[in-house]
Amino acid sequence: MKILSWNVRGLGRPSKRHFVKEFISSSRADILCLQESKLQEIHNSTWKSIGGSRLNFFDFIPANGSAGGIILAWDSSQVSGTLLHKGSFSITLEFTNQSDNTT
């Protein structure tokens, strides 16, 4: 299982989203955490423009003004995610490996 964590420092520009999407795709991560997205809303179409279709589930904490923003995404064919806690500055999910049901 591969996990990628990245402080992206903003995803407002389409060119930045494209760069991030290409890097995510090449990493083949099963779980992804992006910090400092600086996005206040993330719809499914927005997420696909960033994460592609392989990381098909996500949850997020919106940015506060022009600061913050966390996105957690995962490939549901590899892991399932259960939300445990969502705060102003943190999000906690428990992941279960689909191949052997370990957490």
Short structural description:
This protein is α+β, with helices and mostly antiparallel strands. It has helices spanning 14-27, 44-51, and strands at residues 3-7, 31-35, 57-61, 70-74, 79-86, 91-97.
Characterization of the model:
The protein is of the alpha+beta class and 103 residues long. It is 21% helix and 34% strand. Strands 1-2-4-3 form a 4-stranded mixed beta sheet, with no helix packed on it. Strands 5-6 form a two-stranded antiparallel sheet. 22% of the residues are buried.
Features:
4-stranded mixed β-sheet; alpha+beta; 2 helices; Translation Initiation Factor IF3; two-stranded antiparallel ribbon; 6 strands; 103 residues; single chain
Give the mean pLDDT: 94
Please state the oligomeric state of the protein chains shown. Answer: single chain
Largest sheet: 4 strands, mixed
* Strand coverage percent: 25-35%
The order of strands across the largest sheet is 1-2-4-3
Terminal CA distance: 12 Å
Query: Could you give the count of β-strands?
Result: 6
How do the SSEs run, as a string of H and E?
A: EHEHEEEE
Strand and helix layout:
Blueprint: E1 3-7, H1 14-27, E2 31-35, H2 44-51, E3 57-61, E4 70-74, E5 79-86, E6 91-97
Parallel strand pairs: 1-2
Antiparallel strand pairs: 2-4, 3-4, 5-6
